[in-house]
Design a protein that fits this description.
Blueprint lengths: L2 H11 L2 H26 L7 H23 L4 H28 L13 H7 L2 H10 L10 E2 L2 E2 H21 L3 H4 L10
Antiparallel strand pairs: 1-2
């Protein structure tokens, strides 16, 4: 009789690590966005268009992590979140890698600075703006912040790759509840 409550507690806690990882991913993304805003308004580091796209990617990743933590699905629902996390993380890694590439171009190969993003959005179609931003401009090549020898897009790339990997692993793996023979038919949800 004393074993039954332990089984219920053990069974209900099996989904907790996935939820905890998703919530931690949400908090890390929120902290990254908070630091980006702090660096813009308090350190005076104006974001270039690629930086803004990286912020959007990290914010999207945080939103997916947050919804996954609140929803805490099992089975195929968790795998859907794994795919969404992978897409957001890969897009962010791609934009950060593009900016790192631009930052490492020789001085004569750097594209000239274009119009500010707000002006491009006002006068150009969205697809043309995205194409223009992803080609980069001179302002995207400026390295005005480093930590441990790495520029901000390198840190975004590292965090996006780490968060994407952790989110995919946590959400794509099969739940222990489904694989254990004694509890496969019973679920508290």
């Amino acid at each position: 009789m004393s074993g039954a409550p332990l089984m219920v507690v053990g069974r209900s806690n099996r989904g907790f690590p996935r939820r905890r990882i998703n919530f931690a991913g949400f908090l890390i993304c929120a902290a990254l966005i908070a630091y980006a805003i702090y660096s813009q308004f308090h350190l005076g580091l104006d974001p270039c268009p690629l930086c803004i796209f990286q912020r959007i990617g990290i914010a999207a990743l945080g939103v997916v992590f947050g919804i996954a933590a609140l929803h805490n699905p099992r089975g195929w629902g968790a795998r859907v979140y794994a795919v969404l996390i992978a897409v957001a993380a890969l897009a962010t890694v791609g934009v950060a890698a593009r900016q790192l590439y631009i930052q490492h171009l020789p001085p004569g190969a750097i594209p000239s600075c274009g119009a500010p993003l707000s002006m491009m959005l006002k006068w150009m179609p969205l697809t043309a703006v995205i194409r223009k931003v992803l080609t980069g401009s001179g302002e995207c090549s400026v390295v005005d912040w480093t930590f441990l020898g790495l520029a901000m897009p390198a840190w975004v790339l590292i965090w996006a790759a780490f968060l994407g990997s952790a989110g995919v692993i946590a959400n794509a793996r099969r739940s222990r509840e489904l694989s254990s023979s004694g509890t496969a038919g019973f679920s508290g949800r």
